[in-house]
What does this fold into?
Amino acid sequence: MSDPMRPPVSQPRPQTASPRSEPSRSRAALRTAVVWDVLQDALDRRVKATGRQALDVLDTGGGSGNFAVPAARLGHRVTVVDPSPNALFALERRAAEADVADRVRGVQGDAHGLFDVAERGGYDVVLCHGVLEYVDDPAEGIRNVVDALRAEGVLSLLAAGLGGAVLARALAGHFTEARQALDDPDGRWGTGDPVPRRFTAEQLTGLVEAAGLRIGAVHGVRVFADLVPGVLVDTEPGAMEALLELEAAAAELAAFHSVATQLHVLGETQGTPEA
It folds into this structure.
């Protein structure tokens, strides 16, 4: 009997075009390119380590498939867990348009009840992007997604960064709110803040290590992208590519982690080879 928690198995049909071309040709590239490059490298390393061309990937909070669909285009089987029916409908449409519907499966659920809809210990790679900010207990949320990994696997964690929010409020002239975010235990700038919780790089890596993983890499995401006027990027020749290159270069430098809008942590099980 087939496992209902896994996407349908099919022969992978990897695309010749790099999935990075999907996010890199629009304004959204500035928010996704760094994470995708790190994730694609992690997927490639797991393929080499396992000897399997098609990995089992779990994308918690994956929404409409910003990462799930490109991963499926590489030939991997992806299960997306998201609480929003509208997001899952958009995922289904997007996967069909990309001709990967047979390798993408969307199920309604959340990190708290993850194993009601996903298989414990059944995935080579787990994505937890934009989830930790909203769960009641971040430590429990991390433990759940880590428990979804196989004995050798990789966790891709993306969460809101504290420093980026403080910097953005200050540059907008909201100095009291910037100070509030700086002092608040959850990194919130006020009651109108739509993000329930933000993290420092140290907090995120601490959570990942406490769940039993080794830190493979830490990157700052959207270091400059949210601060540069859109009109400059959209109208200046070559500005988009130059800004993408700048983001990629700064992402690896610890000095810029403290001002990034988001932070990306790659966690690896103890049996996974070093990056």
